[in-house]
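# nightly structure sweep
# worker-07 picked up a monomer target from the shared queue
# config: single-sequence mode, recycle default, output format = structure tokens
# input follows
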Amino acid sequence: MDYWTFFTRDLSTFEVRMKCKRCGRCCTETEMELLPVDIDRIVALGYSPTDFVKIDGDIVRLKCVGKYCVFYDPVRRQCRIYEHRPIGCRLYPLQYSDGEIYVDPECPAHDTIPRSEIERLAPVVEAFVEFSRYTRLWLRIKYGI
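# output follows
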């Protein structure tokens, strides 16, 4: 699969259809993994990877400032780069563990996501997990970090 092309198409196709409560839970103490396409998209906004990237071993994640994602505005309770936010943020509260895709029970809107939505996005979540394995190497090669 050409992950780069897959993840640079219409970003709205990756969004979970749910009744978000705008509580900010997903942006609090996040450990959201980033894809290479996420980093390039955010860099195109004028940010440096060092502004928002946290390297956690071989995993590249969004950086937190205090207890919030670097892009989250806790006063306005919204993302500063919402239209350009990472794929993982668009897929949340879907999570992947041990080959299983499930809805994060800590999300207050977890019960608003029908099984059909999980099934619709399952191939995307699986591709996300696979593509994220290359982010650390890609970051070293492209940005030297």
